[in-house]
Amino acid sequence: MSKYGRYIGDLARDVSGQVYAVSDEVLFIKGFVYGGTGPDAFFWTGNSSRPSPIQGTIIPYPADYQGKEPPVLGRYDNKDVLLKLPLGVKVRDLRWLSVWCRRFAVDFGSVLFPADLDPPKPRVLSEFKRLAHGLRSGSVTILDAKTIYIPNLHYDGAGPDAFFLVGTGTEPNAQGTKVPNELGDFNPLRGYQGEDIEIQLSGDLTVHDISWLSLYCIRFKENFGHVMIPKDLDVPPALGQNQLTVIGSTDATSGGGQQGHEFDSCIQLLNGRMQVQWEAILEGVIIRLSARMDENEYMSFGISGAEGKTQMIGADVAVAYYNSDDNKFYADDYILNAKAQCDGNNGACPDSRIGGRNDVSMLYGQRVNGVTTVAYQRSLDAQEAKFDQVIPPVGRVNVIAAIGPLNSRKEANYHSTDRTGSQEDHRIDFTSRGVNQCPTLLAPEDKSEAHGPLPSPTTSTENAIQPWKPNVIFGKTELRARIGPTGGKRGYTAITGQPSWGLAWYINDLLIPEIYVERGETYMFLVEGGNDPLNSARYHPLYITDSLQGGYGQKTDAQQREQRVFAGVEFDPSGFPFPTAAGSLCEWKHKTVDKWAESETFEDYTKTLILECESGREQPANLTWTVPLDAPKTLYYQCYTHNSLGWKINVVDRGFQPPVPRSAASSPIGSRFSLFLAVLLLPLSVLFL
């Protein structure tokens, strides 16, 4: 195959150029030459035996033309031309391509397609391997030599230095090359909740140069999950046919608004109170809603519940709003199956509340001068037949809209203050271009006053983020060790001053508590950190050391000699170390994405988590440790395979009692929030006596 695709042939007569099939939807002409003499000439294609005025289809060029009618071809001299076929038209069904003048029915030049033409096709691969941080996806697709489509992507966003990474070799490693995210930037990856995204390789790199794609934490050299790239790819070349529609950043400093993107289609609804802009993209559509509304109101827009008329019942809508409580914007997928507020089964309900999922991907939002703007993306197909409506690839479909109050759950009340009526007929062809019925835009381009999501780490308001109070365990000889998320900037790093790769020890279901132990006393750790040495993200043996960093198993011999190990590591006859406390896996996981920023306390944070324990033959490992009489006053419980998962063990003499009420000292620490926080009020010099 040529670097331009499958060669079809050369245009003949009054035009010239080499024609290639890039894919089943795209043609490419190398070095197109045409004098521009036809008064009504277009690229014309069809499946009859030869070009004719009776049967054929215009291929608009350029594809991003403005207006309702495609432009007439002008003069071209050795121009490389990319032709995107109209929706529903496939290269494999065509017999010819012509430069055709409609007015005079003249073929200025054409090429016949070979009968056995087989255009390159996208390649569907497996889903991401699920290793850590809730990463999962649908089947990854190689769209062309540089573009990768990842559907239904889930990732909790807790990795501090996580990126899309590609490289060569049998497995992902830190020597790979970063790939920009779906916005085209190299910021550490945010959380994803079932979103469909596309990413593109940078520079001259193509999928033929790589062996794997990974979601990878570079700082901690951790592979959260990956998909292997086969070597026998016969995918379309990358000629710009899959250029990403970069919507913009969600950084609050820019208002989270659009950057470098313009919609050329817009209609007004609700007597001009709401505007809807749209643009069709690969297998989906980007929709931008703007409305004059209060901060405690929502705006909704979507597909009517009945074909050919306006009907609320059965409608598939997106409900968008600004939440002043967390300073964020939301777009949620709703089904309207009854004229009532959602009761958990019926009414105006979020799909996710009644057994479905949110198939709307939030892109950005802003609020300026009383106008809320939210952009989101949805598929043309019905992702869930029970909840979603299809947007037809060709033709118009009835739409509905409403503005109304949010209830205490931040859900839409059915009773709207303003909505489309049953006698109104609003229809949109979501694949159309240049349909502009909005004389002026409600949403201003100046976003200097716009609200946005929580500030990025570079903004000054980060200082307002308060860390959680450290947890403390005292007087317990049985301790259960599990793993879980670190709690972002309120948790592990704020408490310890150390970086973290997104996982930490939970002792008795408390995030990295300081543990008080007595010299000469025996303690039992029941360790449930995973026992899969082939998957480091699920292999966390616990050991006790004097190292603030831990990670004994990944250290060099010289580095290991710098640590003193007190329990959890033994040596084979050859002198090689091995961990002894690797047991079954129990992990606290995010229900959705990491909610540390919204959680004022650790107790609030635990409500956003769910405990998942693997079933099987593995049992918790038992690490029994008698504290040496000469143990130093500060030790650490750590992970054998990773740095920075654990925290302090405060070693005290027998009989030591923190100066707190005895009733508190004897309360059961197994209840996750029965903490000895009173100890924290004492000067550190008293604690470490």
Summarize the entry for a quick read:
This protein is mainly beta and 689 residues long. The chain has 4 domains: 107 residues, no CATH class; 106 residues, no CATH class; 173 residues, Immunoglobulin-like (Sandwich); 181 residues, Immunoglobulin-like, CATH 2.60.40. The C terminus is likely disordered.
| Biggest sheet architecture | 7 strands, antiparallel
Using the coordinates shown, work out and report the CATH topology of the largest domain: Immunoglobulin-like
What overall geometry do the principal axes of the alpha carbons give? globular
The level of helicity is: under 10%
Our count of domains comes out at 4
If classified by CATH, what would the architecture of the largest domain be?
Sandwich
Query: Can you give the mean pLDDT?
Result: 85
DSSP strand count: 43
Low-confidence runs? 246-260, 445-463, 661-689
Number of H/I helices: 5
CATH domain class of the largest domain: Mainly Beta
Distance between the termini: 76 Å
Summing up helix and strand content along with how strands pair, one would put the structural category as: mainly beta
Classify the beta-strand content into a percent band.
35-45%
What is the C-alpha radius of gyration, as a whole number of Å? 30 Å
Topology, element by element:
Blueprint (H helix, E strand, L loop, with lengths): L5 E5 L5 E6 L4 E9 L6 E6 L10 E3 L16 E9 L11 E6 L4 E7 L10 E2 L16 E2 L4 E9 L6 E6 L9 E3 L12 E9 L11 E6 L4 E7 L37 E4 L4 E8 L2 E9 L4 E7 L11 E9 L4 E9 L11 E3 L10 E8 L2 E9 L17 E9 L12 E2 L7 E2 L43 E3 L3 E8 L6 H5 L6 E5 L2 E2 L2 E5 L3 E7 L13 E4 L11 H5 L3 E3 L1 E3 L5 E3 L6 E5 L11 H5 L2 E5 L7 E6 L7 E6 L8 E5 L9 H4 L18 H4 L2
Parallel strand pairs: 29-33, 30-34, 33-43
Antiparallel strand pairs: 1-2, 2-3, 3-6, 4-5, 4-7, 7-8, 9-10, 10-11, 11-14, 12-13, 12-15, 15-16, 17-18, 18-19, 19-25, 20-21, 20-26, 21-22, 22-23, 24-25, 26-27, 26-28, 30-31, 31-32, 34-41, 35-36, 35-42, 37-38, 39-40, 42-43
